[in-house]
Amino acid sequence: MQWQTLAATLFPRGHAIVQRDDFLCGSAQVGADIIEVIGTTGHAPIGVEIALAQAQAILRIVREHPRRAILLLIDTQGQRLRRRDEMLGINSYMAHLGKCVDLARRRGHKVIGLVYDQALSGGFIASGLMADACYALPGATIRVMGLAAMARITKVPEERLAELAASNPVFAPGPENYLRMGGLEAIWDGDLAAHLAQALACDGVEDTRSALGQQRGGRRLAQPVIDAILEGRHVRAA
Question: Which of 22, 196, 218, 237 could form a disulfide with 44 if both were Cys (CB 3.0 to 4.6 A apart)?
Answer without folding.
Answer: 22
